[in-house]
What does this fold into?
Amino acid sequence: MADVAQQNVGEAHAGETRRDFLILTASAIGGVGVAATIWPFIATLNPARDTLALSTTEVDLTPIQVGQRLTVAWQGKPVFIAHRTPEEIKAAQDVDISQLREPQADSDRVQKPEWLVIVGVCTHLGCIPLGQKAGDDRGQYGGWFCPCHGSVYDTSGRIRQGPAPLNLWLPGQVERASQALYKFTSDTVVAIG
Amino acid sequence: MADTRPGAMSRIIRWIDYRLPFVAALNHELNEYPTPRNLTYWWNFGSLSGIVLVVMIVTGIFLAMQYTPSSEAAFDSVERIMRDVNYGWLVRYAHSSGASMFFAIVYIHLFRGLYYGSYKEPRQFLWILGVIILILMIATAFMGYVLPWGQMSYWAATVITNLFSAIPLIGQSIVTFLWGGFTVGDPTLHRFYALHYLLPFIIVAVVGLHLIALHRFGSNNPLGIDAKGPQDTIPFHPYYTIKDLFGLAVFLLIYAFFVFYAPNTLLSPDNYIPANPMQTPNHIVPEWYLLPYYAILRAVPNKLLGVIMAFGSLFILFFVPWLDRSPVRSARFRPVYKWVFWLLVIDVVALGWVGANPPEGIVVTVGQIATFYYFLHMLILLPLVGKLERPRPLPSGIGAAMLGGGARLGAAGSPMAKP
It folds into this structure.
C-alpha cells in the first residue's frame, strides 16, 4: 500500500507513463492467465476419450443381399451400407454431374461400386432419411428421402431435391471415398473408422 | 483505473443508469466506497472467500455436466471425469481442493472477526449472516463429499444422517425420511445431488445480504474504532482492489500447489474404493474442516448430548455478539481478551487434532478438556473478561493513530499497517 501511495507522488512529476506501463503489463499477464484458465473448462465439453474410443465399427457384409441396405452405428451416428443393384449403380453413374447441387461423381463416393457407405444423417438439419427398410419411401431417385423437410437423395446419396445443401457425408466427411474413414479389410468385412 | 464519473459514461450507460442505477451502485460500493485506511491483510479473506465461492460454482457446474447422480453410476462417472474427460482431473481437483481452501479462508475470516470484535454493535447481524453462510457451507460440503459414492462418501453420509437418530422418539423416522429408504442409498444420493447444486446459490444470496449489511456501516478495522470522517478513510479503489488482488495472487499460488502437486493430501484414499454398504472402513474421519465438531461429538459419552454439543459448538457462534460484553472491539486494546483469544485458537486446533486421531488414551482426555474449554470460553470467559478487563485507551481516530496527530493528510507516505 505504501508503495502505491508513493507512486502517486512520483507520478505527479513523471507523468502517466510508469503507471500506464505497469497497468498494461499486469493486465496483459492477467488476461493470459484468465484465458489459460478458461481453456481447460471449455475443453471438458469436447468429446471425452471414452467417447472417442467408440470410433471404430466392423461390419460383416456376407448377410447383405444385393439390393439390401443395412444401418450400423458408428460414433453414435447411423451409417448406411447399401449393397447396390446394377440398376442403382448405373443410375448413380449416369447422372450429369454439372446438374447436381454438390457436383460429385459416383466413382468419388464409393470404393467398390456395389458397396455404398455413407453417413445416414441428412445434411439439412440432421434427421435420418428413409430408405433403409423395404417399403420405405425412397424418393423419386430411388435413394433416400428425408421425412423431416423432404430432401431427396439418389442412389449415390447425393442431394437432388429439397432444402439439404450437401450430399450425404462419406464417413470422415471427406471429398473422395478413397480418403473416407472405412476400408474393406477382407472381401466380406468393412471396418468403419 | 476505470473512470466511472458520470461525465465519462457513455450516453447509453447514462440512459440505462438513470433507470437502473447499476453502474452508479457499483461505483458507490466498489470504487468510491470509503474504507478505513488501516485495513491489514487479515481483511483480504472476505473478498477471497467470495472469489473461491465463484470458483467452486464454476468448477461444480462443469463437473455436473459430466457427473451421474445414481448409486450405480456415480463412482464410475467420477472415475470417467478423472480419466477420460479432457482436463476432468483438473476441474475435479480444483473443486475438491477448492472446498478445503474455502473453509481455510472462511475460518481465518471468522477468527479475524473474533479477534477484532467485528461482530459488535452495529455489526451483529452481519456476523449472524456470516454464521448462516458457514452452516450452509458445511451442509453443502458434506453433501458434495457424498457424491463420488466411495467408501468415505457412503459412511460419512451414514454417520452424519444418523446424528438425527439421537432425537428422542422421532429420531429414527427422521433418519428414514432423510435417506428416502432403510439405508443410505440411491434416493439419498439423488436428493444430496439436487441440494448440493441448490445450496451454493442460496449461499450466494446470503453473501449478498452479508455485503449489504457490511456496507451499511462499512468494514471494521484493526483499531476497532469507527471511521469518523475523510481523514480516516480511503476510497476502496484503487487501494483495496489492488490489495485484494495481490492477496488473491498469493492465494492462487497456494491453491495451485494443492491442485497440481498435492491434490489428494486432503482427501482420503478410502474414497477411491466404491461404496460398500456391507463394510465400514477401518479408520473413518471427516474432512479436516469438520474435525473439531467431530471431536466434540466423540468427547461426550452420551449420544444425544454429544450431538447437541457438536451442533451447539457451531450454533453458539450466533450468540457471540451478546456473550461478549466488552464495548471495545479490537483485541489490540484488550490485554486479557487477546490471550483468551489465542487460547481459543489453540483449543480449536487441539480439537482438530483430537478429531483426526483414534479415540484412545490421551486423545480422549485432551478431547474432553478441549471440549470443556471451548464452551468455557464461549459461555463464561467471553462475558466475564468483557466485564472485568480494563481496556487500554483507544486512539481518537484512525487517521490520528496512523499519522500521529492527523497533521499530514492525503495518502502520500502514510505508514500503512503491515500485515
In short: The radius of gyration of chain B is 24 Å. Confidence is low (pLDDT under 50) at residues 406-419 of chain B.
